[in-house]
Amino acid sequence: MGRMPSAKPASAAPFTPLDFQLVLLRRMADHNADLVEDARHTLGVSVAEMREANRRWQAMRHAPRSRGAVSRYRSILGDPESVTPRRIGDLSCEALLWPVPLWPDLRFEVLVAPGGVAWNEWLVRAPGAPGPELRSPADLTPWSCTVDEAARAFAPVRPLEGSAPTRWGLAFTAPDGPNGPTVPDGPTVPDSAPRDYVAEFTYGLLQRVAVTGPRR
Questions:
Q1: Which domain holds residue 31?
Q2: Which of 8, 52, 61, 96 is most buried by a 10 A CB count?
Q3: For 95-114, how does the pLDDT look when each residue is reduced to its tens digit (9 = 90+)?
């Protein structure tokens, strides 16, 4: 009796939209392990599968003959849900949007400059989907909002360089509100006194907020 053919190696299998969602989650696990664990169970995958998806993604990105980012996303996610002209300052570009089943109200957006170069890749609110009500820093809970939503709610903000290419930060000043965080042994001042914050994002989705100064 002939030998059965061996199973196709995982590295040779197609990289799927599910794998891409695992890559997003792997990057977010550093800040929100519990949320990532819940999402992983929702997707029905193991920790090993998440790590393998991330390993394969990095290998694709850094391969000597790696395809461009836009071609890579099209090969994994298919045709974008929409392609919209966008102007940001003096730059004319196109915004390509793909659905992300794990977050139905979000889309993965790639901004493509003339010549086909992708210069920004992150999660944004889906067109027509209601955004969160961000009235105070207490509303900035993990995964609650995107970079642009936080920037609008707490303007003026100062963009900060993240610790990795997929991470961003926003520095801003705002009143605490009644449920805001506190600084131990700080001076007694009204709860509504402003203080400085930094919000950290991974792939454009909020991960955590830190207080960077005492109440004023």
A1: 12-65
A2: 96
A3: 999 999 999 999 999 999 88
